[in-house]
Design a protein that fits this description.
single chain, mainly alpha, about 0% strand, globular, disordered N terminus
Length: about 325
């Protein structure tokens, strides 16, 4: 029976994968196109895929890191690769903003892919588009859906540390805050709950969930105790802050719907995670996703297309950076 059920889920996931670009097609705007590089750089998608395949093979966690990088880029003045710009003596970028410092990782993976893309198609493909493709491949390589990535983004010549601090929802956020912050980017509450499922992969630092495992009431006691073993309550001089734990206690290296099952068992690692299943407006959707992997896969793919269309620079705006870490 279990084998049969898993075959059905695999079949439904395949359907979701095929349908997701069709269902999402109308959502992408801002002058982006599915065929933007078809003549100028026809191999770009295979180059990005090869780079991500290598990176994820070396470290599965890197898939989650690249997905998170894309989210942190798009939520700060749009999907414009501003997160990739290094600080200089005269320029303060986003890498050292509160939500990013000692946290966002994988910049070298994007650099390596950019080098390969430049070798094939010089000064043609933006860092913003490379990141959008890399995030899609990260999800798919870990067992999640795929989707059609709309392309044609240009790279920002500026970045804003203050905007990064203001626009990225933190792990202590309430449901109302999450709905508002995603709504500010044109994303619905359903999009927000689907995109939160990205927490089915990856690791988190103790500093981001310490308050939850010691102070929240809406948490499974055994789960809290398990996480407390590697995340000390006292933090003299930041001791223990960097200790890692899987965000999804069941299958942290597989992109699946276990995250929602965890929420129903009160095993969300972040306060903001458990807010999605805490007697509020998203409880019913969390319950649906927990029992329907194909519905989650399709909704996640659709929401990723929408997020990827947040305020892109197109046409003559911005530039195509030659080095993702600095403006031309």
């Amino acid at each position: 029976m279990a084998a049969s059920a898993s075959s059905v889920i695999r079949c439904l996931l395949t359907v979701a994968v095929v349908l997701s670009p069709l269902l999402a097609g109308a959502a992408a705007g801002g002058g982006l196109s599915t065929s933007f590089y078809s003549k100028k750089c026809p191999n770009v998608q295979s180059i990005v895929r090869a780079g991500m395949t290598s990176a994820v093979a070396a470290e599965k966690r890197m898939g989650a890191s690249i997905l998170r990088m894309f989210f942190h880029d798009c939520f700060v003045n749009g999907c414009d690769a501003s997160i990739l710009l290094d600080d200089t003596a005269t320029f303060t970028g986003e890498k050292n903003a509160g939500p990013n410092a000692n946290s966002v990782r994988g910049y070298e993976v994007i650099d390596a892919i950019k080098t390969q893309v430049e070798a094939s198609c010089n000064a043609t493909v933006s860092c913003a588009d490379i990141l959008a493709l890399a995030a899609r491949d990260a999800v798919n390589l870990l067992g999640g859906p795929t989707w059609t990535v709309y392309l044609g983004r240009r790279d920002a010549r500026t970045a804003s540390q203050s905007d990064a601090n203001a626009n990225l929802p933190g792990p202590g956020s309430s449901l109302a805050t999450l709905v508002t912050m995603f709504g500010n980017k044109g994303l619905s509450a359903r999009d927000m709950t689907a995109l939160s499922g990205a927490h089915t992969i990856g690791q988190a630092r103790c500093a981001t969930f310490r308050d939850r495992i010691y102070n929240d009431a809406n948490i499974n006691a055994t789960f809290a105790s398990l996480r407390q073993q590697t995340c000390p309550q006292a933090s003299a001089g930041g001791a223990g802050d960097a200790a890692l734990a899987p965000i999804d206690v069941q299958s942290p290296e597989a992109f699946d719907n276990a995250y929602y099952q965890n929420l129903m068992a009160r095993q969300g690692l972040f306060h903001s995670d458990q807010e999605l299943f805490s007697g509020g407006s998203q409880d019913a959707l969390v319950k649906k996703y927990s029992g329907n992997a194909a519905m989650f896969a399709a909704d996640f793919a659709r929401a990723m297309v929408r997020m990827g269309a947040i305020s892109p620079l197109t046409g003559a705006q911005g530039e195509v950076r030659l080095d993702c870490r600095k403006v031309n």
